[in-house]
Amino acid sequence: MTTRDASVLGAASMVVVAAILGGAFYPGPRVIVGVLMACSLGWAVGGVRDRPTPEEGAILGFIVWAVVSAMAAAAAPLAARETVTVWIVAGGLFLVARRVTEGTSRAALTVITAGGTIVALGVVCEALGFGGVRVGGLLENPNVAASLLVVSLPMLVVTEGRRWWRLAAGATIVLGLILTGSRAGLLAMLVCGAVILPRGRGRSIGLLAGGLGIGAILIWRFFGQPDVLAWFRPAIWSAVVRLWTDHPLLGVGPGGLVDAAGVERLLHADHVGQRQFLIAYAESSPLALLVQTGMVGFLIAALAVFIWWRRTRDSLGSSKPLVASLAAMAVIIAFHDLLTVDVVLWWWALSIGLLEAGVHPPPPSESLSTRWKGGRACIGVVFTFVVLWGVVQPAWARWIWRSAVPDEVLVARAMRAEPWFDAPLEWRTRDLMKQESWSWVTAAEAISCGEWAVRVHPGTARLWSVLGMTHARVVTDLGPWPGSIEDARRAFARAVELEPFQPWAWLEWARLERNLGHTSDAIDLVRRGLDAEPHAVRARLFLARLELDRGNHEGAREAYER
Question: I need a surface site. Which of 19, 193, 394, 419 has the fewest CB within 10 A?
């Protein structure tokens, strides 16, 4: 076994460990997994000695475009950095996995299926504990667990081990898939069966029985445990398409969907708040790719897939596990946005590369000169640094921030660890706002923290609103300085531009205008907030106060009664 093969086995182990640790979503496990992944994968990437294939060149082009899109959007720099790094790691896993020997491929696939079995056991144990389905086991989301398990099923055909072990693992994975209650996961499992099972009467009977069973589970899901997201999905898709039409070429930037979705909050008249539903995921990976990287990024990604398919289509017919995995992935990504779920992307990229390596040897390519071989070592070092910078450093800062009760010292430590981290800055600004009286020193620190926060995360309305409140507090406590008034209005205007359907920024802006004696302007602002959210009680009460200020007792009574 070569050093590169050993590195790939190490990277596969890290992906499995990430899944067993709950997807490495939490800061502590993410730091550990990130460091080990950076070292093992950086070593493996540095060990690649041949020229990249056309599809790998297209993947590199997509990564470059993702960086361009993130820089152009500049709305959520830290989220963009983490998202692009996740994509880089996925590309690196695919790059090195498809170049290993057949023996190493089988060994790594065995590691992954063993990890999938452990994840399935976690789902089973959690289901027994809760006494129901729709559980994620070791993972916080049942759909994430299903995305890992359904891809693990076809691998059992080519993994090493005794037949009874593979049958037991397959039964455990199938049971875990059923207990996740994931509709997309169940459909993907049926598609896997259609590809893997040999033709004949047994296949027909198996698919019929599986289809009836899955249909019964889906009917029970819709009526026994209804999921409001299922009915929201068409509205989410249409809202995401509208977002894309506003940014057709560049997109909203990798990791920028949540910030951009503020202008497309979904109407939900049955709730207390009409537009409380904020789109956190596009609920479709192709749509998510389109809205985050624009048409250019989407076409580059599609080109990479097309080139890879043309180069491997002759061998796909001889690899049912690879075809089944790809079909299952297609079903999952049609209904779920997995572009920011790193453990799924890494698991899938590794699986595709290993299954491809097991079908045929790496595609022939021209060997590199000695000079370029040395350059590959430098590429491995750069790759390691990028993973440490994009995965480990933000997780380390979050780990520090959650390690103790927040205070000034903890804010300074977290910001030294990650200068693009806005949570400590927001906390410090709000903490200063709670003080009963302000001095110029307090005001200066609050404004500095607020401006730093919107500088490192300019796409969130919440931070702009906090900055506006900071300047408004200066006007209230220290006098109506023209600079503070204009800065407060500018911050509130940006906040309502980013989140037009939430009333709170409108309300705080109205308080500023009332303190300045502009009662009519304050009433107009409150009414605009009520247009966005008619159920905001605080806004109704403040409107009553404003109507009293200008002597309109009937209007005040009407607002109070409402």
Answer: 419
